[in-house]
């Protein structure tokens, strides 16, 4: 961040009065531009055969790798609304009975994930941000081609503890690719 989006002047790093850490502050109008963590919202969608819906990414980062339908939350929506929107945008899937399942803190890159579990409701397709979307049994999961370690941990938990539907919070060091 270099310029004030209110007046266009240069920004400086300063600790504002009453604050305890440096912020981007405008050198002209003194507006403080806070930067806070981003929310990633998504779903773990399963069908009545116990398969899980994954999307192969058509965008960077991790183009070509498999992920749960998920993305950045938008202004004006709830975490659930965002998760369902992403599920439609990436997999053209409608779901039923969504329930919060997994929270991931990723402090190193300032992200928090909210993953809902849900049941596939009808058919699905393939959204513009996906190369393909597919249902996988556990033994079919492309473990070495998962986009993010959050996806890896979520899938591992789902298949290893199928009856554990509690909301779980977990901190992830870095969401790089995880091997199996
Ligand atoms: Zn300004």
TrEMBL record:
<dbReference type="GO" id="GO:0003824">
    <property type="term" value="F:catalytic activity"/>
</dbReference>
<dbReference type="InterPro" id="IPR015797">
    <property type="entry name" value="NUDIX_hydrolase-like_dom_sf"/>
</dbReference>
<protein>
    <submittedName>
        <fullName>ADP-ribose pyrophosphatase YjhB (NUDIX family)</fullName>
    </submittedName>
</protein>
<dbReference type="Pfam" id="PF00293">
    <property type="entry name" value="NUDIX"/>
</dbReference>
<dbReference type="InterPro" id="IPR029401">
    <property type="entry name" value="Nudix_N"/>
</dbReference>
<dbReference type="Pfam" id="PF14803">
    <property type="entry name" value="Zn_ribbon_Nudix"/>
</dbReference>
<feature type="domain" description="Nudix hydrolase">
    <location>
        <begin position="36"/>
        <end position="160"/>
    </location>
</feature>
<dbReference type="InterPro" id="IPR000086">
    <property type="entry name" value="NUDIX_hydrolase_dom"/>
</dbReference>
């Amino acid at each position: 961040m270099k310029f004030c989006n209110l007046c266009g002047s240069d920004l400086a790093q300063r600790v504002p009065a009453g604050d305890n850490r440096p912020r981007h502050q405008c050198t002209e109008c003194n507006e403080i531009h806070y930067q806070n963590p981003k929310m990633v919202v998504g779903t773990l969608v399963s069908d009545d055969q116990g398969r899980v819906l994954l999307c192969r990414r058509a965008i960077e980062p991790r183009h070509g790798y498999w992920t749960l339908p998920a993305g950045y939350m938008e202004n004006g929506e709830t975490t659930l609304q965002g998760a369902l929107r992403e599920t439609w945008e990436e997999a053209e899937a409608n779901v039923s009975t969504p329930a919060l399942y997994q929270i991931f803190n990723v402090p190193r890159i300032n992200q928090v994930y909210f993953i809902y579990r849900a049941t596939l409701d009808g058919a699905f397709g393939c959204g513009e941000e996906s190369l393909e979307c597919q249902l996988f049994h556990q033994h079919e999961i492309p473990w070495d081609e998962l986009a993010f370690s959050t996806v890896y941990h979520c899938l591992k938990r789902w298949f290893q503890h199928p009856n554990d539907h509690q909301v779980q919070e977990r901190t992830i060091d870095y969401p790089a690719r995880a091997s199996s």
